[in-house]
Amino acid sequence: MLLEPAGRRGGVSSAPTSQASRWRHGDLVELLFGGFGLVHDQGNASIMQERISWNYTTWLNIAFLPLAVALLIRFL
Fold this sequence. Notes:
This protein has 76 residues and is mainly α.
């Protein structure tokens, strides 16, 4: 059985450890991708100006909004 920290004291002690682990793994992934040449040069990057549009995700958000409201009312 795993022992999990309980309460505020456990959260305070495990949060920095978890964040440090994320940073280390992020650096490892960056080094691996850079080592295999999978990272593009910044000179090739371009930022496209996007206009506000109603795409499929907008419609999905609108469609599921009543479900979210119903669940909030039900469980709060």
